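DM from R.C. (forwarded with permission)

"hey, sorry to bug you on a friday — could you get me a structure for this? deadline for the figure draft is monday and I only need the backbone to look sensible"
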Amino acid sequence: MEDLMEIVKLTIPALVVFLTAFFLIKNFLESQQNMQEKIRITEREKIILPVQLQAYERMMLYLERINPETLIFRLFDPTLSVNEFKHLLVKNIREEFDHNLSQQIYMSHEAWQLIRSAKEDMIRIINVVHSRLTEDSTPTDFISGIFEEFMKSAEPALQKASSFLKKEAHEKFNL
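My reply, with the result:
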């Protein structure tokens, strides 16, 4: 019985020391792992955040470039017929959109859908106005029709997308 008591006297302190060391080392390793994870997240953000911000900038630029004022005055050529001008406008809107397709991975689904809607709305406006023109319509008639149709909407898809992108970028990047 005395031998058993001696074993218990030695085992209990050894067990206490072992458990204390085990939990201290476990806590230390967990804190090191958490620190490494935070460093990895910070490093990733240093790379990804500027790219995401650039995506928002590029899509704001796209929306500005397809705005009727910008689009028409940038592409207008008095030597073009109404049909040629219409095709040039639509082609430009689509090409710029296609050029920026990869930006969708850096923004929310809702933001991307609003940008797509703005593109489709501008193409729709151009096609609607073009379909209303007569044989003797001039490019000036076409241009004024585009502006009139664009202004009919209380909040054009273009402005809705632009406002949403600005709001989302301010929230996401603390601007």
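R.C.: lifesaver. The longest helix spans residues 2-65.
me: no worries. The chain has six helices and no strands.
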